[in-house]
Specification:
With about 150 residues, the protein is of the alpha+beta class. The chain folds into two domains: about 70 residues, Beta-grasp domain (Ubiquitin-like (UB roll)), CATH 3.10.20; about 70 residues, DNA polymerase, domain 1 (Orthogonal Bundle), CATH 1.10.150. It has five helices and five strands. Strands 2-1-5-3-4 form a five-stranded mixed β-sheet, with helices on both faces. Helix 2 runs antiparallel to helix 5.
Length: about 150
């Protein structure tokens, strides 16, 4: 039953759609506006695969009702500023991206870290990414990718 008009700024553009008030932000992104970069890994906020920025703060979009984002600013992996492209490149180069389900969430969380701290140490990287889970890489390659990207972005 679609009967709620949602209006928000999505990746820099004003978007207005009629949605079901029971939709999560992840549902809205993937099924209404067809931005499929954010992944549903667990649907319970435990894995971080669906991480996006909502009003400048990372959040698990599977836990946020779409109506809560009304009037807000949402940035997905598709709208991440170009200055963070080195994160994507480093994930590929280090082998940090394997199956790809977790990769967008890790990149979003890493971008949030590098925005606040352009030169993080190992402990800061681990802390910033602790809400993201990966089943493939063992994490070291992902941490290496963030270190590599931090150097490139400086």
């Amino acid at each position: 039953m679609k009967n709620y008009e949602l209006s928000l700024t999505l990746n820099g553009k004003l978007v207005t759609r009629t949605i079901d008030p029971a939709d999560t932000l992840l549902d809205f992104l993937r099924e209404t506006v067809w931005l499929t970069g954010s992944k549903e890994g667990c649907g319970k906020g435990e894995c971080g695969a669906c991480t996006v920025f909502l009003d400048g703060v990372t959040c698990n979009s599977c836990l946020v009702m779409a109506v809560q984002a009304n009037g807000g600013i949402v940035t997905t992996i598709e709208g991440l500023p170009k200055k963070y492209q080195p994160l994507q490149e480093a994930m590929l180069e280090t082998g940090g991206a394997q199956c790809g389900i977790c990769t967008p969430g890790f990149i979003m969380s890493a971008a949030a870290l590098l925005e606040k701290n352009p030169d993080p140490n190992d402990a800061e990287i681990r802390t910033a990414l602790e809400g993201n889970l990966c089943r493939c890489t063992g994490y070291i390659k992902i941490f290496d990718a963030v270190k590599c990207a931090a150097e490139r972005i400086k």
